[in-house]
């Protein structure tokens, strides 16, 4: 399956290093009239990245592909480094009685494409402290609390995931299950 990431020529101006992703403004031409708009970015969970390559769930694969393509085109997706690490682990793990979704070298190539095409967010001490508090306050697993903390810490208002209660507000972050 061709990579959704490899087909794009979009590159973030700073490759995700040092610039607060939420302060970027994007200009576009719409129906011949110039308009200025603020891009509101969403954080994506690992499951969005994995479903892109999972033919066992064609509807989710299609939705994930569209989310990621639109995210590249509109610079509207942020990917936590945790999701890239989990992606490589998930797609290279053999399925029950079958091969893995991707070979290791293909998974690494896809991860490298994600690093080039999306703004990747990295944790700091405050993000980890937020995750610790979130795990207790919202009774989330450590990995889900850590993921939520990225969105909370970086001021992202939406978290795209099937692992959270749909449409629930966790702090300032609304969880959205795009597969419903």
UniProtKB/TrEMBL annotation:
<feature type="region of interest" description="Disordered">
    <location>
        <begin position="1"/>
        <end position="20"/>
    </location>
</feature>
<dbReference type="InterPro" id="IPR029060">
    <property type="entry name" value="PIN-like_dom_sf"/>
</dbReference>
<dbReference type="Pfam" id="PF01850">
    <property type="entry name" value="PIN"/>
</dbReference>
<protein>
    <submittedName>
        <fullName>PIN domain-containing protein</fullName>
    </submittedName>
</protein>
<dbReference type="InterPro" id="IPR002716">
    <property type="entry name" value="PIN_dom"/>
</dbReference>
<feature type="domain" description="PIN">
    <location>
        <begin position="43"/>
        <end position="169"/>
    </location>
</feature>
């Amino acid at each position: 399956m061709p990579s959704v990431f490899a087909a794009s020529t979009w590159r973030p101006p700073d490759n995700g290093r040092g610039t607060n992703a939420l302060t970027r403004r994007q200009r576009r031409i719409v129906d011949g009239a110039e308009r200025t708009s603020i891009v509101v970015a969403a954080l994506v969970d690992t499951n969005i990245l994995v479903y892109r390559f999972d033919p066992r769930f064609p509807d989710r694969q299609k939705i994930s592909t569209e989310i990621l393509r639109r995210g590249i085109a509109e610079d509207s997706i942020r990917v936590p480094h945790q999701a890239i690490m989990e992606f490589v682990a998930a797609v290279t793990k053999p399925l029950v009685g079958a091969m893995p979704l991707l070979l290791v070298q293909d998974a690494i190539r896809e991860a490298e494409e994600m690093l080039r095409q999306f703004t990747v967010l990295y944790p700091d001490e405050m993000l980890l402290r937020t995750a610790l508090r979130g795990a207790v306050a919202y009774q989330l697993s450590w990995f889900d609390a850590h993921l939520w903390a990225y969105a909370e810490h970086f001021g992202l208002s939406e978290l795209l995931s099937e692992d959270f209660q749909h449409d629930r507000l966790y702090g300032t972050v609304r969880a959205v299950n795009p597969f419903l």
